[in-house]
């Protein structure tokens, strides 16, 4: 009897090994299929947008915007003598020529590529008032401050505008009195202020509206990572002013987003300029994040103290306003040491007092403050060229968001670093925030794959996501520069336990958090340690968390709650 049992046991174990080999092969195949699915979706979206353009507009000859135009000398003079720029960057001259020719234009240009000049320079060359719609007060204040310093009559009409300035602006729009070249407004002003729209119509009827610029245009699209409801109403500008050239600009837009915003802004025949997403001067790095908050802050402080001792500017991004204040509080614990090294920090979030927020922004812009600890409310479009580092204390919600935020670094083209602190425990909290967004979970999973990868080039993830051909990283990410010794572990047994535990918890209508699942897994392993034929578990807590996230990404598990 006993030999029969032993023989059957050997057969079962052999079959189990065979099944495990098949599972491993299937998981490898699944990962490759996911990558191919993403590539095919990008190609399909590109095909659809080209077909849509063909259906909506008659075929036109490809226009050469790099040739000679009557305003060339004035453009060069303005570029050099007003903006102090020695030469145009890639596509800038062509974009300006298209706008000056009265065409609608869509610009997809990486952060630091010089998007602002593409509408600011034509605003100066064309007679009248250029309207610029921008999503954030910090961005508007930064732009107006910079233009005013150059002697360009630029104003903003927002909730912070003084009564005196508001009266001046409305008079300029209504009667053409006073100097007003560029006017910045938020999208809410377009959708909610009848008085403003009335004045803008008078400006147009008087022949004084020169162009309309929609900055951070990805906010128009429901598929965009920073969708803003009031941006949906900006199409009214093209309806009301059909003959005024519109230029829409963003650093990030997939084919789907491009299609969406072209339709929403009513510019189907626009001239499109798409630049590479590659920022060769940025070094991308992902670091393991401690579960102890103070340890993370100590590491951030050590980095700033060690790598940026020359008072180089930087940004530390946080998940929320509450967390932002906590990070700043923890930074203050090492404030004396930082001050001894010439490092100072302050925080910035949307709910701060407007005056206090403006002072923080101004101090940082003038290099009187080295580090801003900010939420996503800070940084979009900020035109500070010498930001040497952008540190993410928390996980971004998508590749687009991370690309935008990390793109605040190195706008002057000099070497800069983008560091993201990652721990699996941050994922459930972020997933609860994006659950109801279009493709929210899929977008989150993409950035998690970026963080989890120990082999794949960080930069290649951006190329793949935005549907661009691969380019050499040249050692400008941690995986390409350092490489990592990978230890492969057969976690089939552990994965089965995790899946079984989660199934039991959900069957009993229990909310499963990452911490609870890890604790139950470790208890289960401990209880089974003495059982025969039970593999020993040498997985650390962090490795168990990584395994859980891998099972979520491979769609073996459903998402966990916070």
TrEMBL record:
Cross-referenced InterPro entries: DEAD/DEAH_box_helicase_dom (IPR011545), DNA_helicase_ATP-dep_RecQ (IPR004589), Helicase_ATP-bd (IPR014001), Helicase_C-like (IPR001650), P-loop_NTPase (IPR027417), RecQ_Zn-bd (IPR032284), WH-like_DNA-bd_sf (IPR036388)
Q: Which GO terms describe its cellular component?
A: chromosome; cytoplasm; mediator complex
Provide a Gene Ontology MF annotation, just one: four-way junction helicase activity
Short name of one Pfam family: RecQ_Zn_bind
Q: What is its EC number?
A: 5.6.2.4
All copies of domain Helicase ATP-binding, residue ranges? 96-271
Question: Could you tell me which residue ranges the Helicase C-terminal domain spans?
Answer: 296-452
Q: Where in the cell is it found?
A: Nucleus
Necessary cofactors: Mg(2+); Mn(2+)
Q: Which reaction does it catalyse?
A: Couples ATP hydrolysis with the unwinding of duplex DNA by translocating in the 3'-5' direction; ATP + H2O = ADP + phosphate + H(+)
Q: Keywords in alphabetical order, please.
A: ATP-binding, Coiled coil, DNA-binding, Helicase, Hydrolase, Isomerase, Metal-binding, Nucleotide-binding, Nucleus
A Gene Ontology biological process noted in the UniProt record is: double-strand break repair via homologous recombination
Q: Which residues form a coiled coil?
A: 9-36
Q: Which Gene3D superfamilies match?
A: P-loop containing nucleotide triphosphate hydrolases, Winged helix-like DNA-binding domain superfamily/Winged helix DNA-binding domain
Task: Provide the family line.
Answer: Belongs to the helicase family. RecQ subfamily.
Q: Which NCBIfam families match?
A: recQ_fam
Listed name of the protein: ATP-dependent DNA helicase
């Amino acid at each position: 009897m006993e030999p029969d049992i032993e023989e059957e046991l050997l057969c079962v174990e052999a079959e189990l090994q065979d099944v495990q080999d098949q599972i491993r092969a299937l998981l490898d195949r699944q990962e490759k299929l996911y990558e191919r699915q993403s590539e095919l979706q990008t190609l399909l979206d590109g095909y659809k947008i080209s077909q849509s353009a063909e259906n909506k507009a008659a075929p036109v000859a490809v226009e050469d915007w790099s040739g000679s135009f009557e305003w060339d000398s004035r453009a060069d003079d303005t570029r050099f003598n007003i903006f102090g720029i020695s030469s145009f960057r890639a596509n800038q001259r062509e974009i300006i020529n298209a706008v000056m020719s009265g065409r609608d234009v869509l610009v997809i240009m990486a952060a630091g590529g010089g998007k602002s000049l593409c509408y600011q320079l034509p605003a100066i060359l064309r007679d009248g008032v250029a309207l610029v719609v921008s999503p954030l007060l910090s961005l508007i204040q930064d732009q107006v401050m910079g233009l005013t310093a150059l002697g360009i009559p630029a104003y903003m009409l927002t909730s912070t505008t003084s009564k005196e300035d508001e009266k001046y602006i409305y008079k300029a729009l209504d009667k053409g009195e006073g100097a007003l070249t560029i006017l910045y407004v938020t999208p809410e002003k377009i959708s909610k202020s009848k008085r403003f729209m009335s004045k803008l119509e008078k400006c147009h009827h008087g022949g004084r509206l020169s162009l309309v610029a929609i900055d951070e245009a990805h906010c128009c699209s429901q598929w965009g990572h920073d969708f803003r409801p009031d941006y949906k109403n900006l199409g009214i500008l093209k309806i009301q002013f059909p003959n005024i050239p519109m230029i829409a600009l963003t650093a990030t837009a997939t084919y789907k987003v491009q299609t969406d915003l072209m339709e929403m802004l009513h510019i189907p025949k626009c001239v499109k300029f798409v630049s590479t997403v590659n920022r060769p001067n940025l070094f991308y790095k992902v670091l393991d994040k401690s579960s102890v908050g103070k340890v993370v802050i100590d590491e951030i402080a050590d980095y700033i103290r060690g790598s940026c001792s020359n008072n180089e500017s930087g940004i530390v991004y946080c998940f929320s306003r509450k967390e932002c204040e906590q990070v700043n509080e923890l930074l203050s614990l090492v404030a004396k040491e930082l001050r001894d090294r010439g490092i100072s920090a302050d925080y910035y979030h949307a709910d701060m007092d407007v005056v206090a927020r403006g002072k923080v922004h101004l101090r940082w812009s003038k290099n009187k403050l080295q580090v801003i600890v900010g939420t996503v409310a800070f940084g979009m479009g900020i035109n500070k060229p010498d930001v040497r580092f952008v540190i993410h204390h928390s996980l971004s919600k998508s590749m687009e968001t991370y690309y935008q935020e990390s793109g605040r670094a190195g706008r002057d083209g000099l070497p800069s670093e983008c560091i993201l602190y990652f721990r699996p425990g941050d994922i459930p909290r972020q997933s609860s925030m994006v659950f109801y967004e279009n493709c929210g979970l899929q977008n989150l999973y993409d950035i998690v794959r970026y963080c989890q990868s120990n082999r794949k080039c960080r930069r290649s993830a951006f190329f793949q996501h935005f549907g661009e051909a691969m380019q050499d990283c040249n050692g400008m990410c941690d995986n390409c520069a350092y490489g990592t010794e990978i230890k492969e572990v057969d976690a089939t047994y552990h994965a089965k336990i995790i899946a079984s535990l989660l199934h039991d918890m959900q069957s009993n209508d229990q909310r499963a958090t990452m911490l609870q699942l890890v604790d139950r897994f470790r208890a289960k392993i401990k209880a089974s340690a003495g059982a025969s034929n039970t593999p020993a578990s040498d997985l650390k807590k962090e490795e168990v968390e990584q395994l859980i996230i891998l099972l979520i990404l491979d769609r073996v598990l459903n998402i966990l709650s916070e």
